[in-house]
Amino acid sequence: MQTLKAWWQGIYAWLVDRPYAAGTLIHGRYRIEQVLGMGSYGITYLCLDAAANTRCVLKQVRPSKLGSNKGQPVYEYEIAVLEQLDHPQIPKLLDRFTYDRQLFFAMELVTGPNLEDLIFEEGRTMSEPEALLVILELLDIVEYLHSRELVHRDIRIPNVILQNGSLHLIDFGLARYLGDPATYIEDNLDAYVWEKQIKREVAFKSDYWGLGHFLLFLLYTTFSAPEVEDDTRTWEEELDLHPATQRLIRRLIQIDPPYENAEELRRDLEAAFSLSSKVHNSDSKLRYNKTI
Ligand SMILES: Nc1ncnc2c1ncn2[C@@H]1O[C@H](COP(=O)(O)OP(=O)(O)OP(=O)(O)O)[C@@H](O)[C@H]1O
């Protein structure tokens, strides 16, 4: 019965979740240029805002999700979050409206490659101090969110875009204020596997966990896999890191007790940066600005 229901939901979504075609004018103002993504809850477009004569990002709740607790409430929450934020490295909410009986919102477009594209398509590599500097810059944004009791919960390389040499954090679809439930459906995260419980807990340490995995991604850009793969080796065995960086990552990804606050984390990040810079013998600030 469950499989039949899932099958029918899939067919229904395929039938009704057709994105608006390029050229369509939404709400008399937003000209669709292209679909940027079809996420679990919504459809994201690149648009020309005809009134302001600038490009922006428009998000629409998937029509198949209207009337469900995974549709409008998810976007209402994301809108409420963006409304509260005012930071140069976070896209601003520009507009919200109902059109064609569906909820839409517009936000600033961040232009540039995301870190996933930089690494996997452009082949960028980062030394240990360079990678630590990236995390230090991201920590500024994370601290801003945490000072507003907001946890992003989805800090990943595709959600960080490099615009004019500065990192921007996007996708607040999973962000939650401290004290709010972690999911829309269950009251707690017990139903999920251990890793998902850790990264989706509404606690600052979830974002530190995201930063830890982010850092590992950056550090793996200089790793050359051996000819014969060995799945048993851990990141600590594969990556030749300064012990200060190893200790930092162990706490971020919660092998060791997590950081309690951003000051404590910043202190260890800065220490790891300066110690690893000595080993790498490079002016990483300069190289970082040049490479990225
Ligand atoms: N403000 C923005 N500026 C530039 N690109 C953006 C912006 N917001 C989203 N995008 C891009 O649009 C695409 C869709 O993003 P979005 O976060 O809306 O949904 P998703 O990632 O496809 O779905 P889900 O959130 O369910 O994972 C992604 O490629 C993302 O990089």
UniProtKB/TrEMBL annotation:
ATP binds at K59. Pfam families: Pkinase. It comes from the Bacteria. Keywords: ATP-binding, Nucleotide-binding. Residues 30-292 form the Protein kinase domain. InterPro entries: Kinase-like_dom_sf (IPR011009), Prot_kinase_dom (IPR000719), Protein_kinase_ATP_BS (IPR017441), Tyr_kinase_cat_dom (IPR020635). SMART domains: TyrKc. This is Protein kinase domain-containing protein. It comes from Tumebacillus avium.
